[in-house]
Amino acid sequence: MSTFILGIESSCDDTSAAVIKDGYLLSNIVASQAVHEAYGGVVPELASRAHQQNIVPVVHEALKRAGINKNELSAIAFTRGPGLMGSLLVGVSFAKGLALSLNIPLIDVNHLTGHVLAHFIQVKGEENELPAFPFLCLLVSGGNSQIILVKSYNEMEILGQTIDDAAGEAIDKCSKVMGLGYPGGPIIDKLARQGNPKSFTFSKPHIPGLDYSFSGLKTSFLYSLRDWIKEDPDFIEHHKADLAASLEATVVDILMEKLRKAAKQYNIKEVAVAGGVSANNGLRNAFREHAQKYGWKIFIPKFSYTTDNAAMIAITGYFKYLSKEFCPIDAPAYSRVTLQ
Ligand code: KG4
Fold first, then answer.
1. Which of 48, 71, 192, 205 has the fewest C-beta atoms under 10 angstroms from its C-beta?
2. Is the previous residue joined to 183 through a cis bond, with omega within 30 degrees of 0?
3. Is 336 within a domain?
4. What residue's CA is closest to ligand 1, atom 14?
5. Which domain range does residue 34 map to?
6. 142 CA distance to ligand 1 middle (Å)
């Protein structure tokens, strides 16, 4: 008999549902919330309201595209945290209600584990090589910048992480300073393709070990811009692409330097990247260059699996289902947590 897992993700501003059959993805529906663009960032109350509106049609569509009836589901996997509490509660409550009514197991998934295991999402007929354990994963998103040693589906060790801002957060804030839209990551990425990454130099942190820091870069970017604007009030307009390219190059350099260090220290050549910032073309190119130069076998996710999606929650749920790791109906959502 086949195993069907419904995955539900509602940790931030994307409502998503996906169906996995025996480890293969059948559907992955994501409803993004444009309402936050006007505010230059996610407004938690608006996010939870939008999740409330979206959750039923999104789950309905995921089941429809998968071509299955809800009674065929084997279990429901949901993002338990970390994330915005109001957003999480919508997905968590919905998952619990549905699992209870169908009398099937409930599986809690850590959102960060989901990002890492997104590398195991397979689509029938489009199978790709999967990472072999142990591998390294650079997890870079709006809230996290971590180097993770992935030992198995359910054993991961954080080797290094940001001590202040995350890489995506720093890019978004610098983009805001430049008066660009939200989220800044994709806009900076697009502009950077037309600019010279060597035009400007911004400060890089000197943090021991494998940890990161991005708050100094943000300050350096802000102060440099302030000085340049004194000389030329239209400085940003005149140098938009070069600023974006130089900012992106600095972030990528900082990320890759520690990742190289980790790969050397742990003698690992299988290296993956995950999270929203892994959509960045500069970072993807740096991964390809490292594969050439250091003989790394690299794993770069499809664009649709970089940002928040329920396919990664469903695949993580599938692995937990196989090892019978279920969660009680009274398991609360958690807003803050690291891996596991
Ligand atoms: O993983 P994610 O969707 O959400 C969480 O933070 O959990 O990541 C969002 C982050 C934002 O900071 C966004 O600006 C960044 O990913 N991002 C990018 C790109 N696409 C999204 N950053 C750089 N280049 C991109 N193409």
1. 71
2. yes
3. no
4. 185
5. 4-127+305-322
6. 5
